[in-house]
Amino acid sequence: SLVVLFGATAGAYGAKLGSDERELILLVWQVVDLQSKKVGTLHKSLVKADNLDLSDQCREVSGLTAEGLGKAEPLDRVLQQFSQLISSDLKVLGRSSYTLCSDGQLLIRQVLQPETSKKNILLSDCFYSFYDLRKEFHTCYPSSAAVKDQTIKTMAEYLGLGTDETEEDFGVWQVKTMVAIIFSMLSEGCNYIFTEPETVKYKYETGPCLLWFGFFFFFLSSSKSETVDSETVIRARGLPWQSSDQDIARFFKGLNIAKGGVALCLNAQGRRNGEALVRFVDSEQRDLALERHKHHMGSRYIEVYKATGEEFLKIAGGTSNEVAQFLSKENQVIIRMRGLPFTATQEDVLGFLGQECPVTGGKEGLLFVKYPDGRPTGDAFVLFSCEEYAQNALKKHKEILGKRYIELFRSTAAEVQQVVLNRYMSTPLIPTLPTPIIPVIPPPYTIATGSIRDCVRLRGLPYTAGIDDILEFMGDATGDIKPHGVHMVLNQQGRPSGDAFIQMKSADKAFLVAQKCHKKMMKDRYVEVFQCSGEEMNFVLMGGTLNRSGLSPPPCKLPCLSPPAYAAFQTAAVIPAEAALYQPQALLPATRTPQASAAAPPAVTYYPAQAAQLYMNYTAYYPSPPVSPTTVGYITAPPGAVAAAAATATHTPLLPQPGALVRMQGLPYNTGMKEILSFFQGYQYAPDDYNGLIQLSDQARSVLQAPKEWVCL
């Protein structure tokens, strides 16, 4: 038997059903006996939604009202009645089993499955297998329209059936017409048999991506002969940082994700960045996933975009023999541990977890992440056989092991592969000889410092906005921006503050932009645009504030802080992308005079390689760099090119050897050298005293030697 099912939501109708995340408000169904060609009673049931605000299209098409829906039963009660009434109808027809048949995929996959998941309603097994009448009709009548263009009305017209929808109530005509179409397919001329129903996966299958089983499973994949179809991959953005692969699978409930098809993206520090790549079993499922753009996970909306198979492989593809053996145990819950002491052993970790959360296979269920030279990173992955054990382990979040607190998070197989692979291929903390980089000198430019109002300030930017978004927002005025004239302002945590400054070619251009773009929309927010001077811009970039009350200087101890020259090292060294490196000159007093500015050498910019990014860590004490943090990178150069660049350099090197300068704040007043070295245990620091590395003035040395703040190399 078939149960012909039709439904509607409080929002979009037809091809966009379920795309606006609106709730179900109507279910209509009827049982059809395929052998005797008899039908049961036609049932129509209204559903009371949490939000009874109906869209204009819904009111016009369905004729339903909020008052009528307010008297209906909630979804869980309606589903119970649905099962009971079908059982009664089947008994009358002398049948016991049935399969649902709906007009397309949307009602089951995009409405019922995600809504019941959000409301924690348990769906019966019948909703995990159904026939798509459009596909079955096209199979029976190959000369009919394509499946994506089919509707109940077009199928009825193809068969010459009546198509006057006004004769019946909304939903009733649709079900009656679908039953008539099915009887036509069962007629002697066709004798169609319903054999292969659509299926919905009950749960997401974890484990390594199937692509990497077989010969390639035990090797790092340097060849891309094995590919992932780009028509099956999406990128989800805006995920909560603590979300797991199961949370993402629940967001896409109703759609079939490939085994191991959820890959959480990590930043350069190995932390989740709020994005994930998801691979579906086919392009049809991917297209349905794209319709969930800006649907909600909890209180956050998730952006869904197309992605490529190559991007998915970069995150989820490739593994090692050790990882393959660790992930070979399927249907395990994976927990990531972070912050382990470098001396921690397997026994220490098992003892920390205790008997209430036994690890699958004991020591075999532990995987320590190490650097290429064998040193531990402080990360480990642990396997648990069930959700209960994993929950017990997560309760130990931030408990102490040795002298360190340990963080525990849910993880995925793709994250295991990505973390281990990245660590294995990363440069060790104690480098041998750094790869040189070549400085590329663009046309000379300077950060504006005068009182000419040739700059504009953008305030209220979306936190996800990037350089491309700003250029699109500027429109035709983009051509009037000075080279390297876009400056993103970040807060003290290194995150976007919602502000940006743009240097225009003239004050007139800045005035026109402020007039044209003020309170113009960017994404879902309006942005304020104000004209300002280069001096005002520098005050803000250096940590000061600019508001209606005027300028407030940056909270810096050195009142004569001048903009840095950002000169290149004489012997260039690769600077890790995650390090925010500011020149020590920024700590030194300097007198700003027109003559000094004119004599300053041109700043050297490193144009980016395709995959390189530098995320600047702005603080109130350091000025903004002269280029956007999303466009700074490094180009690897041959030794000869570096030697030629060093020979023509006229400036004095700031550091005689490769290194990075970090500043520590908030130290106890009685902190000494021993405590600081202990704090940086596991990292290499310069063995010499900093007085021998940097030529410091007495005033600068007094700042560096203050007991509250230290500068370490």
Automatic annotation (TrEMBL):
Keywords: mRNA processing, mRNA splicing, Nucleus, Repeat, RNA-binding. One of its GO terms (cellular component) is nucleus. Residues 232-309, 333-413 form the RRM domain. GO terms for molecular function: RNA binding. SMART domains: RRM. The keyword Nucleotide-binding does not apply. It comes from the Eukaryota. This is Epithelial splicing regulatory protein 2. It comes from Ceuthmochares aereus.
